[in-house]
Structure formats: C-alpha cells, structure tokens
Design a protein that fits this description.
The complex is a heterodimer.
Chain A lengths: L3 E6 L8 E7 L5 E8 L4 H5 L8 H4 L8 H15 L7 H33 L10 H7 L1 H22 L8 E2 L2 E2 L5 H31 L1 H6 L6 E6 L11 E5 L5 E6 L4 H4 E5 L6 E5 L9 E2 L2 H7 L6 H12 L11 H21 L18 E8 L2 E9 L5 E7 L1 H4 L1 H15 L8 H12 L5 H5 L7 E7 L4 E7 L1
Parallel strand pairs in A: 6-11
Antiparallel strand pairs in A: 1-2, 1-15, 2-3, 4-5, 6-7, 7-8, 9-10, 12-13, 13-14, 15-16
Helix pairs in contact in A: 4-6, 4-12, 5-6, 6-7, 7-12, 10-12, 11-12, 14-15
Chain B lengths: L1 H5 L1 E5 L2 E5 L5 H7 L23 E4 L3 E4 L10 E3 L3 H17 L14 H9 L15 E2 L5 E4 L8 H8 L6 E4 L6 E4 L24 E3 L20 H8 L1
Parallel strand pairs in B: 1-5
Antiparallel strand pairs in B: 1-2, 3-4, 3-5, 6-7, 7-10, 8-9
Classes of the chains: A alpha+beta, B alpha+beta.
The structure holds iron/sulfur cluster and FE2/S2 (inorganic) cluster.
Chain lengths: 477, 239
C-alpha cells in the first residue's frame, strides 16, 4: 500500500480554521480531497434555556466577521415567537439598512483585503507582495476605496444597531431605534461616492474574469445546483423571501418555498470525518443533493435585481453563459461585486425613505412556540430555527450557516484544483498551495476571517503515508 | 443656625466635609458631591454592608464599609489612595470571577452597576481564575426572571421586597461558595413578586430582569453609555 495523505493546515492557532487533507494513490494522483473545518456546533447547546430575547444579541457572537447576519436572522425568528409576521415600516427598513450595510462592508473587506491580492498580483506572485500591503503599494487608490467602503458599511451598522460590531438594534418584533435626520444627512453626503467606488470594484472583478476566462473555466469549477432567497416577483432579495433552488441548467427544483417549510425540502447529513453537517436537497438525495449558496448562487437564481446599476451588471454577467447559471468558482468575486453595488444602491434608496424616521418601532402579536427564519448573509443563505417553551426559554436551536451549505462545493473545488496541480507530481509545490488557498477563498468561508488578517492564509502541508507517518512537510505563510 | 450646631465636620481625602449625626460616610460624602463606589447599597434600604466595594480607610489605620460606618467629628477618611483603590478593584474582580457574567449578551449591559464599576475602575480582564459556578435560571414568572449566574449576593432584592414592598420574596441559602439567592416557594412564580414591585427594579446587575422590553434602550441611550457610574454624584461638586 503506497497511499499518501497530504494535510494542508493553517499554522495560526485560531478557531474556525480549516485543514485540507489530500489522499494520494501510488501514482500521486488525488484519490480524495477533504476540507475540514472546525465549527461551532456547541453554540446550539449553549443557547438552550436562555430567554428567547437574548438570542439575537447572543448568537451574533458565533462569528466575528458577519455578526449582523446572525443578529438579524435570530431576530427574524424571534419575530415569529412574538407572533409578528409583518414589522412596522421603520423596523423593517432599519433592519434592511443594517443588512445592506453589513453586506457592503463584508464584501468590501473580502474583495479588497482578501481576494484582490490574488487577482491583481497573480496566483504565482511572491507571497511577500501577494497580500493587502502589496495591493496598497501598487494600487493605492483602490486600497483606500476598499478601506472607506468598509468603514461606510460599518458606520451604517453602528447607526442601526448601536455598535459597529455586536450591537443590539434588532429586537423581537422590531427595532430599538430609528435613523435620526442628522445620521441620515451624514450618510447621504458620501453615498454617491460609495456607489461609484462599488462600480469601480465591480469593473475590476469583471475584467479580471473576462481576461482569464479560459483558465478560470476549469479552475476549481464544476456544475452545481444553487440555492437562495427570492422575492415573490423573482427579484433578488438579501433580507427576506421564499426559497428557490435551481439545477446547473437553471431549471427550478423548488420555488417560493416559505422558509418555515425548509425542513420539508432540505435535510442535513452527518459524515464521520467532519464536524460540519452536510445539507442537501431532499428530492435529489444526500449523494447529489448538495448545492451552492452565496453571491454566485444569488445572481444565478435571481430573475432580476431591483436597482438599476446592479441589474445591468447582472444582465452582463448572465450573458456570459447565455442566461444559464454561471458555474465558474472564481466568478464568485464578480457576483460578489454585483451585490456590493446593489447594497450601495439599496442604502441610497433607503436613506431617501422617510419611513426611517418613524417612531413605531416594535409590535407584538400572539405568542408562538416555534420560530424559523432565513436571511441571505454575505456568504449565503443562513437558517435559524428555534423552539421556545411557555417560560420563554429556548428548548431547541438549529442553525445552518452558509459555510456549511458550501461544504461539499469547497471540497469539490479543492479536489479539482488538487487534481489539476498535483496529480503525477511527486512533491508539494508553492503553486499548488497558492491555488488551494485561492479556490477556498472564492467562497469567502468563515474560516478565512481568522487566517486573513494580512491577506495571507498560512498553511502547513504534510505528506502522510497510509500508516500515518509524515513523509514530507512544507510550511507557508 | 441650628443645623450648623449639629453638623459634624470631618475630612475625605483631606477635603473638609460636613454631615449630620447618624449619617454614614457614604451618605455624607454623596451630599458633598464625593462618590464612594458601592454595589450593595441602595438608597432608602437598610445597608447590608456585604460587597465591601465602598471600603474606605479611617485615620490611616483601619478600614470599614462607608455604607454602614457613621461619621464622627474629626474623622479622616481615605477614599482614593492607591491602597484603597487596589483593594476595591480586587473585590470587583472577584465578583466577576465568582459568577458567570457574560456582559456581551446581557440585557442589563450598559445599565449594569457591576459592569459600570469595572469600567470606572479600569478593569480589563480579571487576574483571578474564573470559577464558572453552576447556577440556575428561573423564568417561571410571567413578567420577571431570575438568572443566578449573574447574582452578586448583594441582598438589595431581599431587603427591598421586605422593607418597601412588604413582601417576603427572596432570601439566601447556603454559606460561602454555596450561598445563593432563593425564593419563597419552589419557583419565582410561587412568590408574591409583581412586575411593579420596587424589588423587581432593585437588582444592580442582570440577575432580576423584566421579561418585557429587553434591549429596548438602544446603545448610546443606556445609563452608563456616556458617563461613568458615580458621575451624577460628582457633578454636584462641579457646579
Ligand atoms: S438577585 Fe440581584 S438584587 Fe438580589 S441578591 Fe442577587 S444581585 Fe442582589
Ligand atoms: S456598598 Fe458598602 S458594603 Fe456594599
């Protein structure tokens, strides 16, 4: 037996980190690729017994990078618990504003700090310059725009939730503040600039994809189903809507499914080698029922986008694949920038809406026992499901986070890249490591937040034989 | 004139202060615009003297609780030396490690006297090890809940219920590390406690909280968002 196992592992000791193991056969061909992610299932138990109103504030601690998504998803589920199906206009719009602020800052962070070094400096550029500092030196204007776009998004979060990170704004049945005229005017000053910079970033992502189409067509790419929210009229909606799933060809698997019925359409499978669950579309089954979520899937599933600049960008994006779903993994970056532009446009639309100055913040209805809500987090569809007893204590919590949905797709991307860049070659190369990192990063998985402070993903590679002996080793980062 | 005759003159940190006979150091200091940190003391309730956060040094020789010690003529009170401040800080740190205080999701955050005290004292992370005690949450009452994870055993609820609401709702059971707040019955819903009771609003931390209106005060509008705890008292002196 000459099976070997390569393990690619971040060096930094942080939670949410990933580890790649590649099982090789005698010819050094990839037999199997697995991405292991240390995840936070413990939270679901920690939540049990807590009063339900604490959950939107508590659960955002799950994630340091998109806490607003958890805050809002939990608040939406708790709206159900307090018997509210429709919020007051000010509450609904304040929450949307918070969410678009979050999407703007998260997408800006990912694109400018994490992804742009790979795209602008090239996959094989020296890691010394293939990082955010390298980008800042070579493209100072772009780097500054990234920082300011992110800051703008964070300020929107602060004005709606009270704090830039881990605020309290969304409460069961509503919101705890409105947007003052002074706050609004402050944001209005810069919003046109934000829209313009988002257009600029979109252009970079689009041109990059078009120029490298041939390479990207095969780079970690594969056909897949896609899942996202969709508004009643088929419009992209990041905050609310029913569930839509499409096949690789764009045919609908299901459409406009009320989120409360999610468990009739989706199930989760546990696999012995991973802490993560593997969600799948029930009607297709556990083997082939996996799907992708996130920017690429959302642009693929939407019939249209209700902001003009993002809509024309979507039309251009879809034209590339003649209206069929785009399955190029690295096209996630392009789609992400369409969404960033959409978020900036949505913020502008909301700032001009006087409903945000309303005072009717919270409403209550008849108390219910179960709350299910979804939200399109920056990384993809996020599910929050709770049961609450008659004493107001949570008895059950189930969360499906976007990185979980993208679990199999990320494994596939890793497999594809490994097959292309390692098979047949006896040693572990820098090029392989770079590409694995870039392929995983396209999905903007949660694990990236921890390893990406400087735009680097420190990796440790081990070549381990079937007996578990380390036969080769390489450290990077 | 009469009042002047009865007044007692003493010093706090070298500053001359006047008070009335029977007043505690804490009361007289407060009237003079001097803040003595406190957690278990609540205006209008018999002082319990249990948290010792109000510890002061008298005459350079002995320490006492400013909330229980009456003033006397010529008394010299040290309310701010490094020694006293370090001692108080250690006590507050211990309150944190002896309970399960997860400020990040507590409804009381921003309005909590313990949290505000830690901020005022500049406590970043306690140096003592966390004990992580097992503690129960009782949410049986329709309007209020008690989370023993956050109880600092100050007795404000016990005494407020008795003295102001005329009800026997809370008490303590156990000793030392096993001491805990108990209710008059199997669970909170068995007691006479009502949402409008003074006792329902007496807790300095998030151990007794109303169920309705959680997090309704936005960040920025909470009690200690703008000014540290005690600054309302100190503001008097600035005028
Ligand atoms: S429940 Fe609150 S008021 Fe009562 S003893 Fe504990 S900390 Fe003090
Ligand atoms: S306030 Fe004096 S002992 Fe607690």
């Amino acid at each position: 037996m000459a099976e070997k196992r390569i393990i690619v592992e971040p060096v930094t000791r942080v939670e949410g980190h990933g580890k790649v193991s590649l099982l090789l056969d005698e010819e050094n061909k990839v037999k199997q690729a697995r991405l292991h992610i240390v995840e936070f299932r413990g939270f679901e138990r920690f939540i049990q017994g807590r009063p339900y109103w604490e959950i939107p504030v508590m659960v955002q601690r799950l994630c340091g990078i998109c806490p607003v998504s958890h805050h809002l998803a939990a608040a939406k589920a708790m709206d159900q618990i307090v018997g509210v199906d429709k919020l007051t206009p000010v509450a609904e719009k304040m929450r949307r504003l918070m969410h678009y602020g979050q999407t703007l800052q998260s997408h800006a962070l990912h694109f400018f700090h994490l992804a742009s070094p790979d795209l602008l400096m090239g996959f094989d550029a020296d890691p010394e310059i293939r990082n955010v500092i390298g980008v800042a030196k070579k493209f100072p204007e772009l780097a500054t725009q990234g920082v300011l776009l992110r800051k703008y998004g964070q300020e929107v979060i602060k004005a709606t939730s009270g704090k830039k990170i881990h605020g309290t704004g969304a409460i069961p049945g509503g919101i705890n503040k409105n947007l003052s005229i002074a706050e609004r005017d402050e944001f209005l000053k810069d919003i046109d600039q934000m829209v313009e910079w988002s257009e600029g970033a979109l252009k970079v992502a689009k041109e990059y994809t078009m120029e490298h189409l041939e390479e990207l067509g095969s780079f970690g790419s594969f056909e897949s189903s896609h899942l996202s929210h969709i508004r009643e009229d088929g419009c992209m909606d990041l905050y609310d809507g029913g569930l839509r799933a499409i096949t690789k060809d764009g045919d609908k698997i299901f459409d406009h499914i009320p989120v409360e019925q999610y468990s009739d359409y989706l199930a989760e499978e546990v696999r012995p080698w991973s802490y993560m669950k593997f969600p799948f579309i029930k009607s297709i089954g556990p083997e082939d029922g996996w799907y992708r979520v996130g920017p690429l899937s959302r642009v693929n599933t939407a019939d249209f986008i209700d902001t003009p600049l993002a809509e024309s960008a979507r039309v251009e994006f879809m034209a590339l694949t003649s209206g069929k779903p785009n399955n190029i993994t690295l096209a996630y970056h392009w789609a992400r920038m369409i969404e960033m532009l959409h978020s900036a446009e949505k913020i502008r639309e909301l700032l001009n809406d006087s409903d945000l100055q309303g005072n009717d913040l919270v409403i209550k209805g008849e108390r219910r026992e179960e709350g299910i809500a979804t939200l399109e987090a920056p990384r993809g569809t996020l599910f929050h499901h709770y049961k609450v007893d008659e004493n107001d204590q949570v008895t059950m919590a189930n969360l499906i986070v976007s990185t979980t949905s993208n679990n199999i797709p990320m494994n596939l991307a890793v497999q594809k890249i490994a097959e292309e860049y390692i098979s047949g070659k006896p040693e572990i190369t820098e090029g392989l490591l770079n590409r694995l990192e870039i392929g995983i990063r396209a999905y903007d998985p949660c694990l990236s937040c921890a390893t990406h402070a400087m735009g680097k993903m420190p990796l440790e590679v081990k070549l381990i034989d079937a007996e578990g002996k380390v036969v080769d080793q390489m450290v990077k980062g | 004139m009469e009042q002047n005759l009865e007044a007692i003159t003493f010093t706090i940190d070298g500053v001359e202060v006047q008070g009335m006979p029977g007043q505690t150091i804490l009361e007289a200091a407060e009237e003079a615009g001097i803040y003595v940190p406190r957690l278990c003391q609540l205006k209008g309730i018999t002082p319990h003297g249990s948290c010792r956060v109000c510890t002061v040094k008298v005459g350079g020789s002995w320490t006492c609780a400013a909330c229980t010690q009456p003033i006397y003529e010529g008394m010299e009170v040290d309310n701010s030396s490094e020694e006293i401040q370090t001692l108080r800080k250690d006590l507050v740190e211990m309150l944190f490690t002896e309970g399960n205080h997860y400020c990040m999701f507590c409804d009381k955050s921003g309005n909590c006297e313990l949290q505000a005290m830690a901020y005022r004292m500049g406590i970043m992370a306690p140096k003592y090890p966390y004990i992580y005690p097992e503690a129960e949450l009782d949410a049986s009452h329709p309007d209020l809940f008690i989370d023993r994870n956050r109880c600092i055993l100050c007795a404000r609820c016990v005494n407020t219920a008795q003295e102001q609401d005329g009800k026997s709702v809370f008490d303590f059971a156990g000793r030392g590390p096993h001491k805990k707040i108990i209710v008059n019955g199997e669970k909170l819903s068995d007691t006479q406690l009502a949402a409008a009771d003074k006792a329902a609003d007496a807790c300095p931390v998030g151990a007794i909280l109303p169920k309705k209106g959680a997090y309704a005060k936005p960040v920025g509008a909470r009690d200690y968002d703008d000014a540290p705890i005690g600054s309302d008292i100190e503001a008097k002196v600035c005028k």
